[in-house]
Hints:
alpha+beta; four-stranded antiparallel β-sheet; 4 strands
Amino acid sequence: MITILHFKSYIFAYGIGSVPFLTSFFSTIQHHLDPKKERYSLVLNELFMGRLQWQKADAATEEVKEIREELKRFAANQAVSDIENPNKPLPKEVRTEAANLAEAFVNEDNENLFDNLLAALKDGMKYERDIEIVNL
């Protein structure tokens, strides 16, 4: 059985996809933009661990927007499967034929992970609720 993850805040949940797909998303960001996890620490440290406090959602939103813009400079076939296991094959959900890396992470409902993450962050700020990565 495949675990399907979601970004969740309050009563709202936005689809991500499988654990390997989310791992690839974070690994790609870390590999290409922030190997030491310092520049985008809210996304790569706190959110990656499963929870981001709602009070940090505004700053995390800026990180996500900047990450999205930065990843547009890379070809989609430069996605990284797993930063800790670089020889692991890419999850099938990663769209290596996309225009760039910012467009390569689209879930099975054809929703871009950046859009879903930004929506969850917005809900977190609006309802003053933490943003979580959950299995629903």
